[in-house]
Amino acid sequence: MARNAGSIPTPPDLPAQLAPGAACTLAHDGYCAETGIEGARFDGAHARGLRLETVRLAGVEAAGARLESFSVLDTALRDCDLAGIDGRRGSLWRVTIHGTRLTGAMLAESTLRDVTLRDCRIDLASFAGARLERVTFESCRLTETGFLEAQLDRVRFHDCDLTRADLRGATLRACELRGCELDDLQGIEQLRGAAMPWADIVGSAGVFARALGIKILENEADRR
């Protein structure tokens, strides 16, 4: 497959149909390929080094699972609950995640390449030290999520809530933000070089002014 040089993530290479897979495969064997899993529960499971390849997950609940050093390739997740998972040093490549809860997820030092997250709740999560390449966050809640020291390469934030998110020490290359809420964004100076529509820049003028310490003068008429 030719390398995608643009900003749009390459979608998963998935067949139209996948045979239903046994729920225990994911929980016990640590490897799952070419299958579909629906409605399974793995809350609090521990599967270090888990590997998913060519898999569809729907309605899967794995809140609080420990999935350190996991690997996910050519996989689609929909309407799953992954709140509070420990997925440090994981790898996601050609993955779509839709309508999924990732509140408090720990994805520090992970690598995300060609990943699309749409309509997801990813608040209070951590991407500290992670590398994100060709990743799109669309209509996601990212309040108080940390990207400390992360590397963001061609990452797109569209219609996302980044209130009180943390970009301190992050490196952004060829990134864009459209229609995002940026109130109290920490490390806002790291957006240097990112692209935004003019209307968004004007709408966020107050946020940028506060970050730069610019004081607002009263109108002459207000002082009379």
Report on this structure:
There is one protein chain. This protein is mainly beta. Helices cover 9% and strands 27% of the residues. It contains three helices and ten strands; from the N terminus they run H-E-E-E-E-E-E-E-E-E-E-H-H.
Write the layout of secondary structure elements.
Blueprint: H1 23-29, E1 31-38, E2 51-58, E3 71-78, E4 91-98, E5 111-118, E6 131-138, E7 151-153, E8 156-158, E9 171-173, E10 176-178, H2 198-203, H3 205-212
Parallel strand pairs: 1-2, 2-3, 3-4, 4-5, 5-6, 6-7, 6-8, 7-9, 8-10
Whole-angstrom Rg: 19 Å
**Biggest β-sheet: count, sense, barrel?**
10 strands, parallel
Name the poorly predicted regions: none
**Global outline:** elongated
How many individual β-strands?
A: 10
Mean pLDDT level: 90
Number of helices: 3
Question: What structural class do helix, strand and pairing data support?
Answer: mainly beta
N-C termini distance: 69 Å
Q: Give the percentage of residues in beta strands.
A: 25-35%
Features:
224 residues; mainly beta; ten-stranded parallel sheet; 3 helices; 10 strands
Write a brief structural summary.
The chain is mainly beta and 224 residues long. The protein is built from 3 helices and 10 strands.
